[in-house]
Write a structure and sequence with these properties.
By secondary structure, this protein is mainly alpha-helical. 40% of the residues lie in helices and 10% in strands. The strands form four sheets. A three-stranded antiparallel beta sheet has the order 7-9-8. A two-stranded antiparallel ribbon has the order 1-2. A hairpin with a 5-residue loop joins strand 5 and strand 6.
């Protein structure tokens, strides 16, 4: 009986010592070491890739934001968002929040539409699928068609006409997460004349802003060239202040 109690006590004490040691090593020492290394070697990324403007954090380099006009009726949840055409616009998405340059940055929800690529498409005489001019409401074809019409209308100016064939895919489709912070250089360039006209700027200066904020492929071969919309709009704001 005494041996049994003694052995049980030894096992409990061994388990308690293991718990204390592992808690200190895994719960204190290791997190502090990883945090310290991250702060020293990757300070910007470890802190969320924050972007500052005017000395204040206005967002993250990794999360997209919207640039919409304030609602006419703040209490109307059904009121459709109206893009503020003074700014470069991101990809369409229900996952993006509002931007502090206009209203208040609030992250809403992440996620894709989950609509199939042939949603709303119909076959032609050869069996190839295409989007009809009037696709069924709620389908991907209807969303893409409406988005393309809006892009053409919003970005056409007195001296620059956008053609439907000029609209890149990222201008009318959302990313898988719905939080893509980047757009393609083609979509950014398509918005140059509209942004220049709305802000009373020379189009060449705005085009240079796009060129200066275009990032190439990672390591020269991974991914595609891209433009971070938040960084571009901050640069646009600074140009306007000058």
């Amino acid at each position: 009986m005494n041996n049994s109690v003694t052995n049980t006590g030894r096992l409990l004490w061994a388990g308690l010592r293991a718990l204390i040691v592992l808690t200190i090593v895994c719960g204190v020492i290791y997190p502090l070491a990883v945090t310290g290394i991250a702060q020293l070697a990757f300070n910007d990324k470890a802190n969320g890739s924050e972007i500052k403007s005017g000395g204040k954090v206005v967002g993250s380099e990794l999360i997209g934001q919207t640039y919409n006009l304030p609602k006419k009726n703040p209490n109307d949840a059904e009121e459709a968002a109206r893009p503020d055409l003074h700014w470069f616009q991101p990809r369409p998405s229900n996952g993006l929040g509002a931007n502090t340059l206009n209203t208040q940055y609030q992250l809403i929800i992440s996620g894709a539409t989950n609509k199939a690529g042939d949603s709303g498409a119909v076959p032609d005489k050869n069996g190839h699928l295409y989007c009809p001019e009037k696709a069924a409401d709620g389908t991907l074809c209807a969303q893409v068609t409406a988005a393309k019409e809006a892009v053409v209308k919003d970005n056409s100016t007195a001296d620059y006409t956008v053609k439907p064939g000029d609209v890149p895919a990222d201008a009318v489709t959302s990313s898988g997460s719905g939080l893509d912070p980047d757009i393609s250089p083609d979509y950014a360039k398509l918005q140059v004349h509209r942004v220049a006209e709305k802000n009373g700027l020379d189009a060449a200066k705005v085009e240079k802003l796009v060129a200066d904020h275009t990032d190439g492929r990672v390591l020269g071969f991974i991914g595609e060239p891209r433009v971070n919309v938040l960084k571009l709009n901050i640069a646009l704001k600074e140009l306007l202040q000058k």
